[in-house]
Design a protein that fits this description.
Number of domains: 1
Structural class: alpha/beta
Low-confidence stretches: 1-32
Helix content: 40-55%
Largest sheet: 8 strands, parallel
CATH superfamily: Metal-dependent hydrolases
Shape: globular
CATH class: Alpha Beta
């Protein structure tokens, strides 16, 4: 049974930022049953897997029922760009990006890179370039030479895509895993406007968030913010402030509590939204308005 979000006790938060079940059944009802929060935007999701499984339509219907107004489906390589461009043409609530994810970078990355700019000549243009960046986590662990070579390719691909984004005056979606300082350095060196940069799935702490804020950049938050051990992530979100906040699912990954460990989907953004409204001590209506305004401004959504 759906709980009216206006019933949410937004100040029932323990010192770690996690609302306590012991404070009342409302917490369990919000996070244990169907949740909706009208007017929210999933600023970073991956719909390709849902399309491949033949469940895109019911997935989008569930997202609408959960209150999602818009979804930005984020490109990772040439095998999903056309799929996403087609989705954006078919579904008015879907926008898309194109870019080469660092884990998709290989010796042939330049061939796919050469295809990116043409998407900005289409009637249905991407709303950003990404996701791009650096990822140390998935490098080979037992082959130092191979890891070094792959990381150097990631750096080259990221530099090239940053320059293209600068030329296109396009927002940039950054993937950074185990390479925050290197990503910041590359962006600094590119001369790109930092107000057009978002570090998606921000999983760092307040110190790293301050570096983004000092430059004018943004962090976007996934269901990780709901995890018990993510206090530093919550502190980073609060440091950024509600007026600059964007939320995302990164579906099918990183499902929020209470769905953690299960395949994620856009509808589950409502759980993250409910949690964050409580974290910031605001009504669901205010939270939805603030985060939607920011996402629309960042991506230029009409």
């Amino acid at each position: 049974m759906a709980l009216a979000m206006g019933e949410l006790a937004t100040k029932e938060i323990d010192p770690t930022g996690i609302r306590r079940i012991s404070l009342g059944l409302r917490f369990g009802q919000v996070l244990g049953g169907f949740v909706s929060m009208a007017g929210i935007v999933d600023s970073h999701t991956h719909l390709h897997s849902f399309a491949l499984k033949g469940i895109l339509d019911p997935t989008l219907e569930a997202a609408t029922e959960a209150g999602l107004r818009r979804l930005v489906t984020v490109g990772t390589d040439s095998d999903d760009w056309e799929c996403y461009a087609g989705m954006a043409e078919k579904y008015p609530q879907v926008d898309y990006t194109v870019g080469i994810h660092p884990c998709s970078v290989d010796a042939d990355w330049e061939t796919r890179y050469s295809q990116i700019e043409a998407f900005w000549s289409r009637k249905q243009k991407p709303v950003a370039l990404g996701e791009i960046g650096l990822d140390r986590f998935h490098l080979p662990r037992n082959d130092e030479a191979a890891a070094k070579e792959i990381f150097s390719l990631q750096v080259a691909a990221c530099e090239a895509q940053l320059q293209l984004a600068k030329n296109l005056d396009a927002p940039v979606v950054i993937h950074s895993r185990g390479a925050f300082e290197e990503c910041v350095s590359l962006i600094d060196g590119s001369g790109i406007d930092w107000t057009k940069v978002v570090f998606h799935c921000f999983s760092e702490g307040p110190g790293e968030m301050k570096q983004l804020l000092d430059r004018g950049g943004f962090g976007s938050f996934t269901g990780v913010i709901t995890f018990k051990n993510a206090e530093s992530v919550r502190e980073a979100a609060k440091l950024q402030g509600l007026d600059r906040l964007m939320i995302e699912t990164d579906a099918p990954y990183l499902a929020p509590m209470p769905k953690r460990g299960k395949p994620n989907e856009p509808a589950y953004l409502a759980y993250t939204a409910a949690f964050c409204a409580a974290l910031f001590g605001v009504t669901p209506e205010v939270f939805a308005e603030k985060t939607t305004t920011r996402a629309k401004a960042f991506y230029g959504l009409g």
